[in-house]
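Encode chain A's predicted structure.
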Amino acid sequence: MQTSLPAFLIAVLFSSLLSSDADSRSRPLQKNIDIKVHAKNFSFDQVNPNKKHFGRLTWRGGLVLSSKQKKFGGYSGLVLTNKGKKLIAISDQGTWLQASVRYKNGALSGLKQPHIGPLRKKSGKVLRRKKNSDAEDIALWRNKKGVYALISFERKHRIGRFSMSSDGLSKAFSYMKLPRSVFKTTKNKGLESLTVLTDKNNKGTVLTFLERHHGKKNMHRGWLIRGKKSWPLYLKSHNDFMITGMTTLANGNVLVLERYFSYFAGVQMRIREIKAEKLRKNAILDGEILITATMRYNIDNMEGISAHTNARGEQIITLMSDDNFNKSGLQRTLLMQFKLD
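Encoded structure for chain A:
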């Protein structure tokens, strides 16, 4: 059973969160490469590892992922497609990971044929420097011509549309028009999350939020973006949690992934569900809390969230952590799944 980290190790972990730029000084990845990824199973509840039910969430298994490839890690956003059989994750160091997902008796068991590659500009050149390559979230966007990946970036704030193929993500082909207020935010508290809405009133609209407040008092600021138009809306902030990811459920509701850290409580994770009908101009949102996980549970710096419907018709929620390229073992790349009841 995985045990909780001592307080002084948690403090070091937090320091790594603040200094995660270290790896950005290394040479960027230049081409797509196949890699080997080791997967080790873990239980969610460290005190009661046999516990499966957590409110409306049912545990479906988790993997600690590791690789000797130095560019593996830092995953801040992910999507699962093909009924959960294919995974695409993006790293805040300007790379992507693509793999087939293996299951055993409905639970995660490993990754098959994993490969990574660099995110590229419209010109085809590899994104360089942290300010250009700090990718934070990914969502699938569809039009009449096909399916594309929307990727949000902070520091140099933008949302890019990237081409997709069986080999992974290709170059950006366009960027969305963003409201001017986005560019007034601090460089490292930018567009941490985005999702594409599917309800009848907002179908095809992009929802994005800043990582921290930057809005009305105790409100996270976000925008609904459709074409060249955008409208503000707000999400109530509770207990100083920060937004790290979003995904849209089959019914149109949105799940918001949040993270909190303190030297006393350590790392915490929370998931909120926002009703689709609440998503409108100038709305002040809140939402039902599905789960709040403390250091009692096997969590880390949770940043990626994706929802899909599997072959059984079940709604599956997948979470992924950003290890900040911390190779000391204090942080890990975790991949975990729950069934949403």
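The CA atoms of residues 246 and 268 lie 17 Å apart.
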